[in-house]
Amino acid sequence: MRKKIAKRKKELPVSTKNIIGILISNGIGFTSIIILTFISSLILTKSSALTNSVSIYFIGSVTIGSLITGFIASKKCTFKGFISGIIASLPLMFCVTVVMLVFSHGRLIPETAILYVGIIVFSAIGGIISANTKRRK
User: Fold this and answer.
1) Could you list the residue range(s) of the whole structural domain that residue 99 is in?
2) Full-model pTM
């Protein structure tokens, strides 16, 4: 009698899974940054806020988006939360820098260094929170 051979799905290597996880988390994080920036621009348009608060709203949107990025990266990747959060922050910093350069005609805002530190720190915090909330098998 013939034995039925179960078809196995080809497993992706761990490094490929990590790269895909980081790309997915960056896509979701960047989308959340765009949505939060849109919401904050609506708030600034409807209120009588000062023009100085524009960069504060932008930095807040980016740091919340990077927290989401670090959280999702730690869920999708196999390495520890802190490391996955920091690694996930690098492509996000690149994307934010490109968008800032495109929309500001090649000039960066003076708070760019604060923005980069916020992206790294909040992505790491998101990774730590995610690692601490993983379900145990």
Assistant:
1) 52-137
2) 0.80
